[in-house]
Amino acid sequence: MTIESYSEAIVADRPKALSKTQSHYCPGCLHGLAHRLIAEVLDELAIRGTTLMVAPVGCAVFASNYFECDSVVAPHGRAPAVATGLKRVSPDKIVFAYQGDGDLASIGTAEIIHAAARGESITVIFINNAVYGMTGGQMAPTSLVGMKTTSSPFGRDVKTMGSPLKMSELIAGIDGATFVSRRSMHNPAEIRKAKKAIRRAFEVQINHQGFSLVELLSNCPTNWQMTPLESLRWIETRMVPVFPLGDLKNAAANNGLKGV
Questions:
Q1: What share of the chain is helix, strand, coil (3-state, %, to 5)?
Q2: pTM higher than 0.70 for the full model?
Q3: Non-local CB neighbours of 146 within 8 Å, separated by 6+ positions
């Protein structure tokens, strides 16, 4: 059989919503994968041309470079407030915020809670890697008990530092929240579930059903001081038991949308 007799079919390609810009993320970081999942959903739902993204301060502060849609940068923690303003002045647009755990669960706690309480028609993608990634690896509100960071070198102590905040559970308990899901990106099966959750969150907004949030468990090989493979195993063995995966709230299912 000659080489000419073989045929090839493209089974995967770069999403049109994802730019060709080289990533600034550290090797092994899962931010790039999260970006691709979002971009695939934007393409599949044909909403790229009407989507506005809000990226606050954090590792993803340059996320606007990677999406082929309009975007703005918000002050640290204020993405839900900026997204609220954008959605209210342009209700025909699809608006999503992309936030890390230090941003959403610490300096931006008030913004995310009240955006959910108001039932704002926005979508939030929440990347939880249990550490402040951009500023030097300090302890975040989501850092695990006993987890060593640059600001907790002997490990997180519950007596003096409290327990990790479970933001998805907190948001799910708010009446204004419609869809809240926690997924992970540590293996192919979970990645597929993560994409389905992201799609469902955008569908909630498209159908004018209120506030949606998807938490994605992610890694930080640099600040965790692990190899990328070790960090994926750490998500599975250490983070998932503390932050259980699944849909925490799917009020939209009562209005014709099935759960993930």
A1: 40, 20, 40
A2: yes
A3: 155, 156
